[in-house]
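Listing 4. Sequential folding, example run.
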Amino acid sequence: MSIASIKNTQKIFSDLQRARRKIILPLILLTVVPYFCFIWIIAFNPTFFGQLIGRGSLSIGIVLGFLLILHIFLITFLYAYLVNKKLEPLVSKLIKAK
């Protein structure tokens, strides 16, 4: 392996790490913050989730819990999409450079 090849591999690896951080850090925040808010509300205002919506028997807690689960599924699909679109080409490029 030549020095130029090693430098090229290092640049691709650095690009891969940078792209990975750009994807993962925002998604971690989008995942953790809603969970902490949910737990915070349960801890400091537990009656909030027990309130019924309208005249029905559906509570705010059930709706927000369902939306939280849906939110996490969307984050997972977004992660898979971004990894396939942004990171996988860099991984392939890195493998070819070796």
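-- end of first protein; second protein begins --
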Amino acid sequence: MLKSFIPLKFKLDSSITDKHSAGGTAQARFTQGFFQRSFDRKLLIRVFLAIFCTTILAFSIVAPTYRDFTLSRQNLHDIQQYRLVLDTANFLSAERGPANIVMSEEPSLDSAGMKRLVEFRQRSDAALAQLADVSDVPLGLHNHTVPPDMLQRVRYQLTLARSKVDRIAATPRAALKTAEIQDAIESMFEASELFRAVIAWNADELVQHDTGLSAPALLGQMLSDLREYGGRVASQIIAPLTTGQRLPLQNVIESRRSQGRLLELWQLINSQNALYSTPSLIKSRDEIERLFFRGGLDLVDQVIDEGRRESRYTLTATEFTQRFVPTMRPIETYRSEFLDAVVEKFADARTNALIGLAIVVLVTAIVLATLIGIILSVRTHVFRPLMQAHDDVLRLAEDRPIATATRPTQAGEIRDLFQAIEVLQGKLQERASLTRELKVQAETDGLTALLNRRMLDRFAQSSPIGERTNESMCLILMDIDHFKKVNDTYGHVTGDRVLIQTAELLRSQLRAGDLIARFGGEEFAVLVSSNDLSGAISIARKIRLAMQRETFTTPDGTPFRVTASFGVASGRRGERAWPELIELADTALYRAKSDGRNRVRFARNKLSAPAMMSATRDNLALERRSPK
């Protein structure tokens, strides 16, 4: 009977608590969710700030390296373009060699000299056209484009000089004049001078772009001048040699001036040996000293001496040119090897800058990836578990179950934290179990397992909740007759057996909705959830007859019987109504005892007259029929 009535008790008595608990839990869950979202948002903002600051720091590291790479890449491109300019100057200077030969020979369109001149002119024109072409600039680079008017002046002067050379080449030797040949040679010199302005402009552009290019730019310019003036030394005496006339003093002066310029340039170039000193360059310098300065210039001195003594020249102009030109090859070789070394140096610088940039970018990417990984790892393995631990603690505080399990990927400290939470959960479960046991002990009678007086009072004094719960009820107080005599006669053990057996009897006789409690020593109370007093009286009579017929035994098997008296009253639940209802039922019980025990009495002043009369008749009739 206790089991059947306890659910009703909890439905009525705990409904308010459940509602408040549910509301509190919902509010707590909302608060937890809001806190979780707020924390995630703040953490995300801080993560972005950390990544942003690290990215700025990484950019400050990568940017200079990238600038170094782009600068080295641009420098390599500039040096390569500068080499094209120097090569063009060399082509223009070299073109004078076959031109001198053509002007010193008899007219012939099929001669080797003419074919060689055509070849050299084509090479010069191609180089000039390449300088004027700015379409094929690599991505991210820029050209130091030679001003078109400078190139145009060079082309115009070159065309003019070539026309003079062609006119002389078409004239028989007998009709040649020294002044005409000298004029053609001077025109070629003028074309070279105009192009030297192009070299100077380009060198100045390179130095302005990067001062690190000043040394190779100036050395390249000096080597170009060395080649130019090396050729002029011979060209300045070729006109009298071609016509076989005495060498004019002006030609000698110009040739000697060119020689002085050559020696000055060579001294300056040798002073810069430490910048670009390789075995091949050292060998080329030795070749220049041996072949050009001692061989080529000696040949020039020989022709000058012959021309000033008014003696016959031992060499023709063609022979002189063919012997002198090979002495200048070491100069061209040295210039070419020097430019190769410069280009290689800047190519290596670009490669090293690219490698450095790749390393810096890779290291920076690794650092950024590591930082992001650490942040995500901390968020996943530290902050989220801490938030989970926070939620778990709140769930434990609200007596809600948790489903947190330690994972192998968690850090040792986090794993220890969740293990501590699991220990706490176990302790709380033990405490909850102990609390439930204590609650059962506090609310039930330890002997009969019925509700005790305090739990009965708590239920009856509580206000009814819900429309389906009836606030009216009837109270049946039952007292075992002569219970003290049973204890005195058979002992307290037998008395306890009587109480236990009586509780079992009550459970068997009552309905599922009725509440049974041990009210006192040998007193029991039954709450009937109805205001039907007649029905409650009938229940009491039913129990009285069952008690009267029940056989009780002592521990040794001796049978005996006991009876009980009953007091019945009708009233309401509530803090004020319950004491009044107890008083009425207790008064009725007292009358049952006074009337001879083994009786059922009810509170008369709470019934209408017809109900009292009917209940009285039925009660008297049953008492007369029942055995004593």
